Amino acid sequence: MLRTHHLSIELNHQCILSDLDMTFAPGKLVVLLGPNGAGKTTLLKSLAGDLIEALPQVSLAGDFLETYTPEVLATHRAVMPQSIQLDFPFLVSEVVEMGLIQQFSVSSRQSKVMEALSWFDMTELAHRNYLTLSGGEQQRVQLARVFAQIGFQPESACRYLLLDECTAHLDLAHQHQVFKLLKNWVAQRGVGVIMVLHDLNLAAQYADDLVLMHQGKLVCQGSVQQVITEQHIAQVYGIEVQIHQNSHGWPMVAPI
Amino acid sequence: MLTESNNPLSTVLKNPPWLLFWLGVFLFVLAFYSLSIGAMSITPYDLLASLIGQADQPQTAMIITEIRLPRVVLAILVGAGLGISGAAMQGLFRNPLADPGLVGVSSGAALGAVMIIVLGATWFHGWLSYLGAAALPLAAFLGGLAVTSLIYRLATRNGRTDVGLMLLAGVALNAMSGAAIGLLSYFASAEQLRSLTFWSLGSLASADWSSISMVSVPILLAVIWLPFSARGLNAFLMGEAVSKHMGYNVKQLKWMVIGLTALAVGAAVSVSGVIGFVGLVAPHIVRSLTGPDHRWVMPGSALVGALLVLGADLIARSLLAPSEIPIGIIMSAIGGPFFLWLLMQRRPRVGF
Questions:
Q1: CA distance from start to end of chain A
Q2: Is domain B18-350 given the CATH code 1.20.810.10 in the classification?
Q3: Most B-contacting residue of A44, A88, A97 (CB-CB within 10 A), to test interface
Q4: Which end of chain A has fewer CB within 10 Å, C or N?
């Protein structure tokens, strides 16, 4: 269980997050929604343990983050930031291998790297130079690394994936591939996923829970049907939308 | 990748452990060859006999063990220290153009040395008479550490060290020590100016067992310990936050890399003067062969750095024998074009 306890963050005397009291259960895919500057990324960084101020305000499995060492924290959560700059010509397999943080034998490391790449249908890229890949391919390689970090931890451990716009550079097919994989991990492996997303329709299709934020405050948290309403969207984004019911049962947001 | 495996050379080059092994063998051979070259020609037999203490002539044994061997050992130590520090710095700053000088250790050491050379007779008279010949290396070593720790302090706030800020603070402090060195050279006498120039061009001529015993501890510390930070530095190339997410203690990593680099480079500069280029080029040569993984780049850079300094010193003392050319000149004159050639050859794999 990942919890924030009246989480408030100030940067340069400006309130970024105020009094957030939230619980993120494992085995759920939660999407953080909100306009630019709503505090989604700051919330995600707080949950990841990146912000010193947030460490005593966030708890994982009952213990505050300040009591975790980096090594132990890394076995419980993996993080995919908005962008990763890597300017050295590593091979794709080498990048993914960095995600294997436990001790494995050389041969089992190789097979685990290939397994991680296979989750994203990328085994044929294993020996390519990372720098020669397209932006979307690089993002999928990084996803494979992030997934590998907690994917080989024991099933019993509480594990979270914290993803910040992790599908921004992906084409339609690969976006859905990633979300199907996430759904599968949530359902089969009990991993908790918390992600920032700007695409309301993707969120509506895949999320178990939605968190709508505005100016550092929680507007509402709940199921897709509860959160995606014309009033909420108008209130937070300041734009008129129509919400259609898709034939598969999830709402579709269309600006008027 | 598999298509080239028929070529035995490329097989060796693509297999990092073998590459390191052959670099080590090459270093050993070059060291042995280096021992046999000098004003007096010594046969391989006499050389071996002297090394194991069975020489027929005590004079030959003396030349080997007291003159040539210390010089070869010092060249290897200095080169290894500069090479591995360069690799560590390039990793820490995520920039393939970084070199150990960026953290101010070289300019700090130069400032310390220049102060002793120019002001030694007046301001630091007591210090000089107390320490004698050790005064200059010690001042260089302390100067390097002082400037590096100042830069580190400037870039650290709330227990977090900003690597980018450190780079910029390094530029500022390097300029300031440059100004101080310039001012001191302006007031230096002709004789002081000469020894100052000589020091700034680098030389291993002062090698003896006592200088080796002084520098071996800090340099060996770095050469043995820095490779333990290899995986952390690999992760660091993707950014500080990412390596933290993967469970690395970045604070400890930065402190360790900067501290060990300052120790090794400070020690190297203190005995040999400024030998540029090694820290920049050695990691590039290794990276173009093994790829950027620090687990190979760091030990490889130590070996290649040692090879470069040993080779350059061999040329420096044999090209115009019996007079010697400062090693820094050789290093830049040969290293520069070689580095360019390497960049052109390996453009796709170096790629930055």
A1: 39
A2: no
A3: A88
A4: C
